[in-house]
Design brief:
The chain is 43% helix and 16% strand. By secondary structure, it is α/β, with parallel strands linked by helices. It has two domains: 242 residues, Spore Coat Polysaccharide Biosynthesis Protein SpsA, Chain A, CATH 3.90.550.10; 74 residues. The strands form two sheets. Strands 8-10-6-9-4-1-2-3-12 form a nine-stranded mixed beta sheet, with helices on both faces. A three-stranded mixed beta sheet has the order 5-11-7. Strand 2, helix 3 and strand 3 form a beta-alpha-beta unit. It is globular and about 60 Å long. The chain starts with a helix and ends with a strand. Pfam families: Glycos_transf_2. Keywords: Transferase.
Length: 333
């Protein structure tokens, strides 16, 4: 890649990928089809070092484009390792870029997504921007699933918000990394999940401004296995566990145990009323169970029981067409 090409890049889109080669190819295709004249680059981080089919799929897709890009393999397995590597590679390879965006490997960006995200950051001075992630289910689902709080998102017009919660549709200014380093995405959340929530909680404490961009839409494909009552209930419990761990990191050390236990009991009591409210609104038990299960997740986490859904052994490997070979583990365009 020529130095002058690197110097012209204004934004870098980062994609961590793990065992979704077809998904990451679709994600990349949506990025290559972005409207506007913003100069951007793409960094893909493959987190399956043993069988890097995602890297092969990414290289095959990017080879047909003149957009600056890099595909690398992160050998340390874990979501936060992959995210940290993606942002580090992006900042090092493209030193002139100020805006670093992230999209997941099961998501599709709308044609004006990048332009809207960067425009919002520029016009408002926001250091972190988020946008809506609209779920598209692989199979028809009942309203008890589509109305579940786990599939909701911040709604409403473009505006300043207290915080965003996920990296699935986000923009982070270079200034954020400069101030937050070396403590970026905490690898303690590698297999539990929630590293993005914890990072943004610290960014909020540090005083960074967050904005919500209504127009920067991303569509996420929800696999059939993520629409079952069992999966959703487990996810609700895990969300509570994540909240407990984040609270433990945020609270002052001396009284942390007592304060956490007090919050657990308060959360459990309030969850009953929240569940009743959800039941009245949705008339369905599954979404109404969410607040109570979150409280249960907090309590189980306080006893040291934490789920590890993002451990490699818990994630099914996905094969691609046999004609697509893994190729090099590291590729650059």
């Amino acid at each position: 890649m020529q130095d002058e090409s690197k110097a012209s890049v204004e934004a870098v889109i980062c994609i961590p990928t793990f065992r979704r080669p077809d998904g990451v190819a679709r994600t990349l295709q949506s990025l290559l089809a972005q409207n506007g004249d913003l100069r951007f680059a793409i960094v893909v981080v493959e987190n399956d070092a043993e069988k890097p089919l995602g890297a092969a799929a990414a290289r095959e897709t990017l080879d047909s484009s003149d957009i600056p890009s890099a595909v690398v393999v992160e050998p340390r397995q874990g979501n936060c390792h992959a995210i940290n590597r993606a942002f580090a590679e992006a900042r090092e390879r493209f030193p002139a870029a100020d805006y670093f965006l992230m999209i997941d490997d099961d998501e599709i960006a709308s044609p004006n997504w990048l332009a809207h995200m960067v425009s919002t950051a520029r016009t408002t001075g926001a250091r972190i921007v988020g946008g809506p992630v609209i779920r598209q289910f692989d199979i028809p689902v009942p309203q008890s699933v589509s109305q579940h709080p786990l599939y909701g998102f911040i709604d409403g017009p473009t505006r300043q918000v207290p915080a965003i919660h996920g990296t699935g549709n986000c923009l982070i200014h270079r200034d954020v990394f400069a101030r937050m380093e070396p403590n970026l995405f905490d690898v303690a959340f590698n297999f539990l999940g929630g590293g993005d929530m914890e990072f943004f909680a610290r960014c909020r404490t540090a005083g960074f401004t967050f904005w919500w961009c209504e127009e920067a839409v991303i569509h996420e494909t929800v696999a059939a296995e993520r629409t079952t009552a069992k999966w959703l209930m487990r996810r609700s419990i895990r969300t509570g566990s994540i909240n407990y761990v984040i609270d433990g990191k945020q609270m002052a050390k001396p009284a942390v145990a007592a304060r956490l236990q007090a919050k657990n009991f308060i959360s459990l009591g309030l969850s009953i009323f929240k569940a009743i409210g959800l039941l009245i609104r949705t008339r369905r038990l599954l979404p109404a169970s969410h607040p109570v299960l979150m409280s249960i997740g907090r309590i189980t986490a306080s006893f040291g029981f934490l789920p590890v859904p993002y451990k490699a052994s818990e994630i099914k490997a996905v094969e691609r067409h046999p004609n697509l070979k893994a190729g090099n583990h590291i590729a650059e365009n």
